[in-house]
Design a protein that fits this description.
about 250 residues; alpha+beta; seven-stranded antiparallel β-sheet; six-stranded antiparallel β-sheet; 13 strands; about 25% helix
C-alpha cells in the first residue's frame, strides 16, 4: 500500500475571498511519482494584472477531481458575471490501474490522470492551452488555474493573448505555496529483540517512522517502519544484514 509524506515549499500567498470545455485528454505516469500540488486552503489564490486596459485575474487552487474543478469554475463565474471570458487549465492525478498493452492480465503498471482546458470564446489555443502549459511548467498536479478576463477595448491578437493568459497563470501559480507528496511504504517486520537497537538505528538513518511496536508470544518484537518508497529495498537489505537474516517481513 502506498502512502504519502508531505514536504512544504517556502512561498506564501494569502487567499482572496460560459460553459466551453474545448480540450480533454488522458495522461500516463508512474505510480511512484512524487506529486507537487498547491497547498490546500478554504478560498482561492489570486493575482491580477492589467494588459492594455484588459484585467486578467489569475485564480488557482488545489482540486483532486474534475467534479470538484467544475464546482469551483461555477463559483468563479458567479463571482464575475460581467467578465468577457473565464478560461482555465486543469491537471488531475486521479488514478486507476490499467493493464499495459501486450501484457499479462495482472501486469497493471500505469495510472491515469486527466488534463482539461478551455478558451471560453477566445481564439482556439490562445487561452486554455497557455494556462495548462503554465501548470505543467511549474510541475504541478491536482491543480485548477482560472484566468478571468475583463475586456478593456483593445484587441491583443493571438500572440498577445497567449502571452497574457500564460503570464497571468504563472503569476498566481508562482505566488502560491506548494506541497510535495512523497510516496512512502510501510514495512511490517518481526525481529529478535537483541537486534532492536540496530533496526531502530537503521530506521532513523533512512528517515523512517516507526509505529505499532508489540511483542508476540515468543517475545519477538513486531514493528512497522514507514519509509520513502525509493529507500524500501535498500532498507530491507540493511535490516536483513543487521539481523543476520533473522528479520521476517510480513
Amino acid at each position: 500500500m502506498y502512502h504519502f509524506l508531505i514536504r512544504r515549499s517556502t512561498a506564501f500567498l494569502y487567499p482572496s475571498s460560459h460553459h466551453h470545455y474545448h480540450s480533454s485528454k488522458t495522461v500516463l505516469r508512474a505510480s511512484s511519482d512524487a506529486l507537487k500540488t498547491l497547498a490546500p486552503i478554504s478560498g482561492f489564490y489570486e493575482e491580477e494584472e492589467i494588459i492594455k486596459k484588459s484585467r486578467f485575474i489569475g485564480i488557482a487552487l488545489r482540486c483532486t477531481s474534475w467534479d470538484d474543478a467544475k464546482a469551483h469554475l461555477e463559483k468563479v463565474r458567479a463571482e464575475h458575471p460581467k467578465s468577457r471570458h473565464v478560461c482555465f487549465g486543469f491537471i488531475s492525478s486521479s488514478t486507476s490501474s490499467s493493464n499495459s498493452e501486450n501484457s499479462d492480465d495482472d501486469d497493471r503498471i500505469t495510472v491515469v490522470g486527466t488534463e482539461r482546458c478551455s478558451d471560453d470564446g477566445e481564439p482556439t489555443g490562445t487561452a486554455g492551452q497557455p494556462i495548462l502549459n503554465a501548470i505543467k511548467s511549474e510541475d504541478l498536479s491536482d491543480t485548477l488555474c482560472i484566468v478571468v478576463r475583463y475586456f478593456g477595448g483593445i484587441k491583443l491578437g493571438a500572440g498577445g493573448l497567449i502571452r497574457a493568459y500564460g503570464n497571468a497563470a504563472r503569476l498566481v501559480l508562482r505566488s502560491a505555496p506548494t506541497v510535495v507528496h512523497i510516496p512512502t511504504v510501510r514495512l511490517r517486520l518481526v525481529i529478535n529483540t537483541q537486534y532492536s537497537g540496530s533496526v531502530y538505528a537503521l530506521a532513523a538513518r533512512f528517515n523512517g517512522v516507526t509505529s505499532g511496536e508489540s511483542y508476540n508470544d515468543r517475545g519477538e518484537l513486531e514493528v512497522v517502519i514507514e519509509v520513502e518508497e525509493e529507500s524500501e529495498e535498500l532498507l530491507k537489505k540493511e535490516i536483513v544484514d543487521a539481523t543476520r537474516g533473522g528479520a521476517i517481513f510480513q
